[in-house]
Amino acid sequence: MSFDTNLDQDTATAIDIDRSKGDFTFPEKHKYDAGRGLTKATVDYISDVKKDPDWVREFRHRGLEVFESKPMPTNWATKDLENIDFDIIRYYLSDGERPKRSWDEVPDEVKETFERLGIPEQERAFLAGVEAQYDSEAAYSNMKEDLEKQGVIFVNSTEGLKEYEEIFRPWFGKVIPTGDNKFSALNSAVFSGGSFIYVPKGVKLAQPLQAYFRINSENFGQFERTLIIADEGAEVTYMEGCTAPKFETSTLHSAVVELVALEGAKIQYITVQNWSSNVYNLVTKRGMAHKNAEVRWIDCNIGSRLTMKYPGVVMKGEGARGEVISIALANDGQHQDTGAKMIHAADNTSSNVVSKSISVGEGRSTYRGQVHIPKHLKGCKNNTECDALLINSNSRTDTYPAITVRGNQHVTQHEASVSQVSEEMLFYMMQRGIGEGEAMSLAVNGFINDLVREFPMEYSVELKRLIELEMEGSVG
Amino acid sequence: MSLVIENLHAKIEDTEILKGVSLEIPKGEVHAIMGPNGSGKSTLSKILAGHEDYEVTAGTATMDGEDLLEMEVDERSRAGLFLAFQYPSEVPGVSNANFLRAARQARLPKGEEIDAVKFYHEMYEKMDVLEMDRKFTARAVNEGFSGGEKKRNEILQMMMLDPKYCLLDETDSGLDIDALKVVAKGVNAMRSPDRGFLLITHYQRLLDYIQPDHVHVMADGKIVRSGGKELALELEEQGYEFLKEVAAA
User: Which DSSP string corresponds to A325-362?
Assistant: First the structure.
């Protein structure tokens, strides 16, 4: 991979920080393997294995056509996208088993993987339900019984589209159309796994549902597809975590996540990703908020080689609210290209974007924000804050805000800042006996402290630990 | 047992700032360095703490026999050297309590955790001496602090870290008389046969509240006079005019 050979020794060492938690693999044992490269035959293979209904097969075919017809978005995004070799990627790997409802039935190696990542433990401690995906398919999926009785559906997308077609199909691909971008089209062609959630009218989940996405195989592409529907007045928090081992070659993760919050509903979607530095993470996430509904994205991006992700909210009904809170940390050899899209499509809608990025060493972080308020609306509000912290003199950050506000009955506010951990601050902290690495991670944790509070306790502890690990490799 | 500085020379870029400073601060004593602005007295404290902007070109500095100049900034601190800053840095988003905890934690052997209950108890006790509000522990380090609050915070950190040698760089600057009294109370409470102090100050005022054992006058990167506490009073009356005579001689 050209990317590795261009790095000097120090940088290579810096990348090699301790990711011991996620950096392990088990031998592959796949019954179904779509092989390398992407053709119509690959798509049909996936459809056959999954026993897709015809409408899904057609949906996939169209996805492939759009994917092939769309150019790489290198006119505005990084040229590094050109280094993705779609011909060596494997698009579908599974053992052909249905997801299990008990960890005891999950194959030992898969079970051990998730145990090492702490998933069964978290499930017992504070989760309402868990889905654990291993390569292309869910290995485990379970939810507390009382939620099932209340009519909550929490299954993988394959099961969702077959068993609950009448709820699934009307919204599937509606928030994010196939042609939204090249990677949403790719996902549409080869999607597998991901969650389907439906929360009935007025049901409010006190505990979060969680999905964990694990890549185990080299040169693999993970393309989960998640659809969450909160019916009128319903409330749900969904959390996703993701890891992959560190391979020599690149791995692709390209998910599509659609959220639908019907009148008065609230959806909160929390991501803590810790991809290894060989992963291209190109994800499309968007929510639709109907009248007085609320969609919040809380997004933390650590690791990966390149992340491109701009969670969005379309505020479709009057009084709808959208929010994106995001933390990105770009270490050596990494580019976090993240941001938010706020599309105001009704009166009196309000949106809030708070983004904090940290660039370490030669890491690069980019913020892209789009806020759209058309002329015919009134009473819309947007607040955007994006702050960047640079750790080293060769770190890089760019900000591309695009705020389109037409009409004069709206309130928008935009603030951006770039700061550095100053030598004087470090000297001060070290004069108190705190080591350089620890001082850096204190400073970084301080920088994002107000956002970390938005994460559930269990995740904020994990987040702080991850950041400490990242910072340890960044100094000395 | 003392902090010993011998013939210390140091420069920043091409400008020589210290031109042969010698000073011995035994444990149990309070020394004061006075002198006009630009004499190098603040620089001396930064160099002892290990600020990387300055390069030591000659001389030595040892703390109870250990070579300070060979140690990293954080090692010097853990070995027992404390600098109360003239302009303490802000550390946004990091609470005072967490900051102090990290500093205390850094002093423990690997694998050992500080006892949080004891830690808070001790911190509150010391805050009471300094007349600090309890809410202060949750505020970010020095962020939005008044001058007086910053200086009190320095003294609190000093009390919590239990150093062997304390350097106080212009701690009196920007303090009103009430704050000065509180700060002095904290320092006086820490005076002990096991601890040495070096007070760096421009004015006699601080020395009304913290009585020094020895007073030194620094000018142009050197110590030009040393004496007892009466020297401070003499300076107060006569100003730094006499230095011109010293320079001329």
Answer: EEEEEE-TT-EEEEEEEEEE-STT-EEEEEEEEEE-TT
- A44 C-beta neighbours (distance < 10 Å), count: 16
The pair of three-digit structure tokens given for residue A155, joined into one six-digit string: 């299954």
**Which among B51, B72, B91 has the least Cβ separation from residue A443?**
B91
Q: In the structure encoding, which two tokens stand for residue A225, read together?
A: 């597809």
| Segment A261-281 mean pLDDT | 93
- CATH number, domain B2-92+163-248, options 3.40.50.300, 3.40.50.150, 1.10.3210.10, 3.40.50.1580: 3.40.50.300
Report chain B residues whose CB lies below 8 A from the CB of A438: 102, 106
| DSSP label at residue A274 | E
Residue of chain B whose alpha carbon sits nearest to that of A446? B93
Instruction: Find which of B85, B94, B104 to mutate to test the A interface (most A CBs within 10 Å of its CB).
Output: B94
- Give the SS3 label for residue A90: strand
Kindly identify which residue of chain B lies nearest to residue A423, measuring between CA atoms. Answer: B52
Q: Could you tell me which of A387, A433, A77 has the C-alpha nearest to residue B78?
A: A433
Name the least confident of A34-48, A323-337, B230-244. Answer: B230-244
pTM of the shown model = 0.84
Whether B91 sits inside 8 A of A442 (CB atoms) is yes
Give the mean pLDDT of chain A. 88
**Chain B residues near residue A450 by CB distance under 8 angstroms:** 93
* Contact present, A221 and A90 (Cβ < 8 Å): yes
- Give the H or E element holding residue B25: strand B15-26
CB pairs under 8 A between A and B: 78
Query: CB burial class (10 A; 0-12, 13-18, 19+) of residue B36?
Result: middle
Domain ranges of chain B: 2-92+163-248
Interface contact A430-B72, CB threshold 8 A: yes
CA-CA distance, B155 to B185, in Å (whole number)? 10
Using CB atoms within 10 Å of the CB of residue A219, give its burial: 0 to 12 exposed, 13 to 18 middle, 19+ buried.
middle
- Reported confidence tier of residue B249, pLDDT bands at 50, 70, 90: low
Q: Where in chain B does DSSP place strands (E)?
A: 2-12, 15-26, 30-34, 54-63, 66-67, 81-84, 91-95, 140-141, 165-169, 196-201, 214-219, 222-227
Q: Are the Cβ atoms of A446 and B51 closer than 8 angstroms?
A: no
| Dihedral sign for Cα atoms in the order B10, B12, B14, B18 | negative
Name the band, by pLDDT with cuts 50, 70 and 90, for residue A2.
Answer: very low
Question: What would the DSSP string read from start to end of A194-223?
Answer: -EEEEE-TT-B-SS-EEEEEE--STTBEE-
Asked if residue A12 has pLDDT above 50, the reply is: no
pLDDT value, residue A361: 87
A434, A438, A447: residue with CB nearest B93: A447
- Contact flag B91-A434 (C-beta cutoff 8 Å): no
pLDDT grade, residue A121 (50/70/90)? confident
Contact B94, A442 (CB under 8 A): yes
Of chain B, the percentage scoring pLDDT greater than 90 comes to: 81
